[in-house]
Amino acid sequence: MNIPANHPPVKTPRIGVLLVNLGTPEAPTASAVRRYLKQFLSDRRVVEIPALIWQPILRGIILNVRPRKSAANYAKVWMPDGSPLAVYTNVQAESLQTRLGGEVDVRYAMRYGEPAIARQLEAMKADGCDRILLAPLYPQYSGATTATVVDEAFRALAGMRWQPALRTLPAYHDDPAYISALAATLNAELAKLDFEPDAIVASFHGMPERTLHLGDPYHCHCQKTARLLSEALGKPLTIAFQSRFGRAKWLEPSTEDTIKRLANEGKKKIAIFAPGFSADCLETLEELAMQGKEQFEEAGGEHYAYLPCLNASEPGMDMLEALVQRELSGWL
What we know:
By secondary structure, the protein is an alpha/beta fold. It has helices at residues 30-41, 51-77, 84-100, 117-126, 143-158, 176-192, 209-213, 218-233, 255-264, 282-298, 314-327; strands at residues 14-23, 104-112, 129-136, 165-168, 199-205, 238-242, 269-273, 303-307. The radius of gyration is 21 Å and the shape is globular.
């Protein structure tokens, strides 16, 4: 095609894939955690309390008390290259880029913190991406996770005169590729243990119980994931929900209570994993692997193992590539 001499430069059209995860502070410091929590906990999808009630609590109490403690926890799991969640998500994006080749521009973003969704979408558009697959890395759909990623992406598009076409990756809680990847990873990790677990706990991130009654499918998605995975493994799984916050009633049973109950029931050897997390992070490496072990041993347990997330493992990347290739159908 001949372009007039005075025509502005035109990029060659490309396809983009933007992997999105929750977010992380930029450093394991109280000031960085405070900035992160302010953005995270100000999201009306995350905290559905009216702002006039919630913001004074957030700014007056939580942001003055919680950052120092959270920063100390982040410091326990911080990696040489940064936050585990950012490191693993970056490796996932790099691995997927290698698998898909130069025809596709693969990047990652965080819903809260950096790299921001809006900045990445703008950069991808500037590099010629006229079709972008937005891929929230949440297997189970929730308004507080998947929906807020989509909200933020469309807010970014609302400021663009020339918008790229956008597709979104659906929840994949029951996708055979996801269940197969989890089963393969868990079987490999269980084979490495020097003990046979009396129980295997599937710990999903908690949500306020009211979200279930308001129509959020998250609880049902978690239950279906656990059922299908149990069938694939040929082993029973104990479902629990972690990371409770505040005084509201949350989905039950809680992971902490479940760990203690199992020990009290005489199950001295357990393994625990987090199928709802696509990459290891504070909630898995500190809350489950460290705090969980202490809670179990204090309750009389003897052998405790945390089994890692899919991260950028071969089964995990096979799954991610399959999901993305499927959603890019007709574009590639």
